[in-house]
Amino acid sequence: MVYIIISVVLLLILFYVFYGGIKTAIYVRRIANEKDKPSAFTPPSPKKVIRERFKSSLFETAITCLENKVEKDCALEAIIEKLPLFLKADSWSFLITPSDDVWRFLFWSKDLDFLPLEELALEIQINGEHIKEVIDTKKVLFIKDTKKNSLWNQKHSLSKSWLGIPIMVKNEIIGVLNVDWFQQVKVSPFEKELINYFLEDVDRVIKTVFSLNELFLSSDLDILTQAYNRKALEKYISQHKSDSSKKAVIFLDYDNFKKINDNFGHTVGDQALKVLTKRIQNSIKSDDLIFRYGGDEFVIIINEITENNSIDIIIQRIKSTVKTPITFNDILIISSISIGYCLVPKEAPDIEKAIEIADKKMYLEKEI
Questions:
Q1: Are residues 78 and 209 in the same domain?
Q2: Are 163 and 252 within one domain?
Q3: Pairwise CA distance, residues 118 & 104, whole Å
Q4: CATH classification at residue 155
Q5: What is the pTM of this model?
Q6: Preceding omega of 43 cis (within 30 degrees of 0)
Q7: Tens digits of per-residue pLDDT, 302-312?
Q8: Which residues contact 53 (CB under 8 A, 6 or more apart)?
Q9: Which are the contacts of 283, defined by CB distance < 8 A and separation ≥ 6?
Q10: Using one digit for the tens of pLDDT, what is the confidence trace for 125-182?
């Protein structure tokens, strides 16, 4: 009697599974294109189902970010972190690797928040052979045992296994996604397949939903603050060497900004820098220009300035807006800036010389 009951139960399970497979195949056929339709009673491939679900989750995240008007860099973070989460990584980070500028971490997992990330990025730019291998080959690189791999030069890293993934737009690398495990792991063949699918899908999401290719490849904007970057400043200087119009060049530096990163973490520091930059942009005219010179240093070019008292008014306005406290996740941040300025052509013959003079004046104020 017991055997009969067991047999009946097994038959019911088999029928349920078989019937479910047929239903799934029917629904898949309804959705798929004619040329891609599977044969009538073939259940969908598990790999294909996982890939399609993964792809749809990327688009769902992108659409949610757009609906909630999330800033582009935060939206990109939400998309890129999907893969490390799927791979059950212990930590991850996204390193921006421009060929003609300083490398920097754009975002990272919370457990890396209190590391000296600016210093680490500079160290990797010099000695990071594992990252350079990813950039040169434009291929995924998996290092199973970092201690035994000749490309791995990070002496104080906790990573035992590491995966480097090139993030590309229009076949140009914008950065490398670092996926780290604190114990040795294996990446299965299917996971490697999924990673390659992920790269295709991220490229598609970026181009289709956010159009970030202009931001990363052809734009002169700093990714974090949306101010112009150092490259844009150099371009501006070269284009205005013979410009004799009256301008003011302001060089500013945030006071003790490193303490914000040390006390509250780089995430809070980055958010504060974004807010403060936006405030400064709102306190100058639309045809004036603000450039991120490096770290927490900025250069502002004010057009049509003729008198010192006019620039003094602008500087006081900038200082006032920066002093207003920032609240971020129940953290109160109060900051200040040191500023130096130089008038062109009254005090310097061109923008390049004016930046040098304004920089020196800024440091004199900081010392005072």
A1: yes
A2: no
A3: 6
A4: 3.30.450.40
A5: 0.61
A6: no
A7: 987 766 567 88
A8: none
A9: 314, 317, 318, 321
A10: 998 999 999 999 999 999 999 988 888 987 767 899 999 999 887 677 888 999 999 9
